[in-house]
């Protein structure tokens, strides 16, 4: 039976990962010249921090329940929002920017590549900690075969990931435009709630890089199925949020913005 002490080992690892990321960001800020390369390194660091923490959150969810997992995720989401700067560790934010004409396809592709590198390479660091087996919850986890989280039909899974991502992105845009007090907490609460709601169906990743780092190649999903659910599903939901956010109906409903002709 999992104990508070064992939860402490997970909390320690998550905190340690965040500290390493802080140090890495400061070194990049000092040593790298302003420009694309510096931005790519920031993206890689953010993705590594995100995926490193979420690997350990799997341990938390498996042994201490989804409620405990949600508390950790809620807190971390606020932390990341305050420390990542312009980095996102999420591909579809740049896909949205392509649609908006804010970044070139080349720049977006490079940043997504940096995210994937950071997210996927961090597992060796996670694996080392698990291999030490300091807690019973880590026993046998370093080299065990992983299982896919998709528990529903392929296309239903893609819809869940896409629709939840759409809701997350719309909520973030509304909060950002309203400059709401406690906006970060509200945004984190909405995102965490949607993750928990989808947890037992698709896994509730809502981030292709995170899903790929944690679940690519796991038993239960082919590569194509993974791409359809976690890349096409999520990215389509995010991209759809761009035109939907601009519609008069949506803005009148959520931003109380009266448009001409009303």
TrEMBL record:
Its main location: membrane. Keywords: Membrane, Repeat, Transmembrane, Transmembrane helix, Transport. The chain crosses the membrane at residues 6-28, 66-85, 184-207, 227-245. InterPro entries: AQP11/12_channel, Aquaporin-like, Aquaporin_11/12. GO terms for cellular component: cytoplasm; membrane. It is a multi-pass membrane protein. The keyword Repeat applies. It is found in: Membrane. GO terms for molecular function: channel activity. The keyword Protein transport does not apply. Belongs to the MIP/aquaporin (TC 1.A.8) family. AQP11/AQP12 subfamily. This is Aquaporin. It comes from Anopheles farauti.
């Amino acid at each position: 039976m999992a104990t508070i002490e064992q939860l402490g080992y997970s909390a320690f690892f998550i905190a340690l990962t965040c500290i390493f990321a802080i140090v890495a960001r400061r070194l990049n800020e000092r040593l790298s010249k302003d420009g694309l390369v510096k931005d790519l390194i920031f993206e890689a660091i953010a993705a590594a921090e995100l995926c490193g923490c979420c690997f350990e959150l799997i341990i938390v969810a498996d042994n201490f329940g989804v409620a405990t997992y949600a508390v950790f995720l809620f807190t971390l989401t606020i932390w990341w929002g305050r420390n990542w700067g312009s980095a996102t560790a999420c591909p579809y934010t740049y896909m949205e920017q392509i649609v908006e004409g804010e970044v070139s396809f080349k720049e977006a592709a490079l940043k997504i590549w940096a995210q994937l590198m950071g997210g996927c390479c961090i597992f060796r660091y996670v694996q080392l900690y698990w291999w030490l087996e300091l807690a019973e919850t880590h026993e046998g986890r370093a080299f065990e075969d992983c299982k896919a989280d998709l528990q529903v039909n392929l296309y239903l899974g893609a819809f869940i990931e896409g629709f939840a991502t759409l809701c997350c992105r719309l909520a973030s845009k509304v909060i950002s435009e309203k400059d709401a007090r406690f906006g970060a907490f509200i945004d984190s609460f909405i995102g965490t709630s949607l993750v928990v709601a989808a947890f037992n169906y698709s896994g509730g990743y809502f981030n292709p890089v995170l899903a790929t780092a944690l679940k690519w190649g796991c038993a239960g999903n082919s590569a194509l199925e993974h791409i359809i659910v976690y890349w096409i599903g999520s990215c389509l939901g995010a991209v759809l949020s761009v035109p939907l956010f601009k519609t008069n109906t949506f803005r009148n409903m959520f931003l109380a913005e009266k448009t001409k002709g009303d």
